[in-house]
Structure formats: C-alpha cells, structure tokens
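Record copied across here:
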Amino acid sequence: MERKAMNLAWGQKVPALLFLISAALIFTGCPPKRKKVLQSEVPPVVDNQDALEYGKDSIQFGTDWSSAPQIPAVYFDGAKSELKPETRFTLQKNAAILKLILEAAPGTQIRVEGHCDERNTLEYNIALGQRRANVVSDYYVALGIPKTKLATISYGEERPVCDQSSEECWWKNRRGETTVRSSTGTVRIPASKLKSLQQP
C-alpha cells in the first residue's frame, strides 16, 4: 500500500519536472535579442585631417564681431596715434590674412577699434581712439584692403584689457584692434592656408 502511494506521488511529480526542464531549455537555449543601434547613437568618425585644419590654428568667426589671434592688435605711445615701424610690420601681416579671408568669404566685414588708457578725459580718449582707428584703417587701404569693407569705431577707455594703474597696463590698453564678422554665416579659414602666408 505504501509503495503504491509512493509510485502515485512520483507519477504526479514527473510531469512537473519535465515542464521545468523544458522551460529551462527554452530560456537558456534561445540567444538573447540584440539591441538595435540607432544611427543617432553611433559615434561620429573624427577626421584627424579636418581636426588639424580647423583646430586652434585656424580662423573661425560668425555674424558677431570677433577678433582672432592671427590678426593681433597694434599698440601706440601715450597720447599718440602715429604708426611705428613695428606697428606697420604687424599691419602688413594682418592685411595679408584679411585679403585671404575676403577671398574665401567676400561678405566679410572688417572693423578697426581704437582704444586708450584711462588717463585724460572721456571726450579726449574717444577722439584719440578714433584717430588711432582711422590711421590703422587708412594703412589697410594703402595695403590693398577695399575701403568699402572697412569700418572704424572708438571705445576710448571703455574697454580696457588691463585694469591696473601702471605703465605696462596703460600700454596694453593703448591699442588698435582689428575685428571681423560675416554677413552670411560661419567662416572657416583652414590652418594650411594661413601657414602658406608664412612661407617665403
């Protein structure tokens, strides 16, 4: 009687065990689904050549007035607006780059900004800054930059790059800056074109 009860119990367990084994085989035997990678999730391929051409050694600007390290400012003696020999040399290099920019992006506008140190009156510095901007602009015209592409503005003492009352700081503020902007969108001048200007 006891053996018959055991056989009956085992007979009831066998189907349940077979079901569990079959389920385990089904879940372990099927390969996991592969996640579908969207195109937006694929990292872009970086072109090393493009990164070099348009890295820190390139010139890039948009529709706002901006300066570029390749077009440096020039500096003036106190209360003066005359161009010194070293100033002319810097402006000659600037003009070569500006011509390159105008060739690549004819819609580019150029603005020369005149700045002063904090000494003298506000009115005096505005007038002095304008003379400095004008003399730089006139020299660009003499070097072949179209006058129609040039504008000038004086900020007087309003935009210093150094705020200490020292001769070194005043010298940094007595400057003429050349800024550019595009009328159509972003302009990018690759580094290779700029380096070609440095070759003899």
